[in-house]
Amino acid sequence: MRRKHLGYILQFTRSDHGGRHIHVFRDNRPLGVFDRRDGPIRGLETVWNADLREAIDRFIVELNERGDWI
Predict the structure, then answer these.
(1) What is the distance between the alpha carbons of residues 12 and 8, in angstroms, rounded to a whole number?
(2) N or C: which terminus of the chain has fewer CB atoms within 10 Å of its end residue's CB?
(3) Could you report the per-residue pLDDT of 1-54, keeping only the tens digit for each?
(4) Chain centroid to CA 47
(5) How far apart are CA 50 and CA 45, in angstroms?
(6) Gap between the Cα atoms of 50 and 5, Å rounded
(7) Phi/psi class of residue 51: alpha, beta or left (left: φ > 0; alpha: ψ in -120 to 50)?
(8) Would you state the pLDDT for residue 3?
């Protein structure tokens, strides 16, 4: 599933490697990963801000509604 929230493109793919995480992009450029257990990782911690947190929170609500993130 791929969605755009607050200018960030957020992507969750079930077929990806193990562990629940969200890939984050901005302007077609990868920023990093939000991991279910560890939070912002792999580059995302350097660009972390309130807007990105809100975008991820919104996306997680969508994923939970679909039963993907739980």
Answers:
(1) 13
(2) C
(3) 999 999 999 999 876 566 789 999 999 999 999 998 899 999 999 999 999 999
(4) 13
(5) 12
(6) 13
(7) alpha
(8) 96
